[in-house]
Design goal:
about 200 residues; mainly alpha; about 80% helix
């Protein structure tokens, strides 16, 4: 039976749940679950207040809300392909640039540039591609609804970012990178997503 959230501040009998906690929970709950979920919490709050079970009922209520916000927000996000694509695109972009920053540190680059010529060329190509692979792994972890859309959005953002930075600094819009750059970005992103999907299939087998 569905219990509805009472109006007028959420009062049930002689119990008024913390209004801020309740509003936060209502923001992340899907509409189909909102009334029943909040109603169940308030009913348990009333029972605890009447029987004085455990710690303060109000503190218990706030703890339950805090524990529920994360999982419910994640559940609602996964139900929205647009929100999931936006999150996975941002996470992939951030992960790729964080990895690129790490690679540019002297502790990493020092040993690399001491390699012989042929090995150095191969390693530099792998290092150049690795941020896009890391971005693809991040996209694959988060984009379960429409991974291809997230890959295309991430690829476009990564490809356009240097152009936007140059335009912001100099006010000039330079020509975009070559075809090889676009192909490498998309290939590495797709490889990262494929690796995540392969691991998921193996784990679920």
């Amino acid at each position: 039976m569905t219990r509805r959230m009472p109006k007028g501040g959420g009062r049930v009998g002689d119990v008024s749940p913390p209004s801020i906690s309740t509003r936060l929970l209502e923001l992340v709950l899907p509409p189909s679950l909102r009334d029943a979920f909040v109603g169940d919490l308030i009913e348990e709050l009333r029972r605890r207040q009447a029987s004085e079970v455990g710690s303060s009922p109000t503190r218990w209520y706030r703890r339950q809300v805090l524990r529920s916000i994360g999982p419910m927000a994640w559940r609602r996000l996964n139900a929205s392909a647009v929100a999931q694509t936006a999150l996975s695109t941002g996470a992939g972009f951030a992960a790729g640039w964080a990895w690129l920053w790490l690679l540019n540190q002297p502790l990493i680059l020092g040993p690399v540039f001491r390699l012989p010529g042929s090995s150095l060329a191969i390693v530099l190509v792998l290092l150049e591609a690795s941020p896009y692979l890391i971005a693809g792994l991040a996209v694959g972890l988060l984009a379960t609804a429409k991974p291809l859309l997230a890959v295309l959005a991430t690829g476009a953002l990564v490809w356009a970012w240097p152009l936007l930075r140059a335009w912001w600094s100099t006010g000039e819009l330079h020509a975009p990178g070559g075809l090889w750059s676009a192909v490498m970005i998309l290939a590495c992103l797709l490889l990262g997503v494929w690796i995540i999907q392969l691991v998921r299939r193996r784990l679920s087998a």
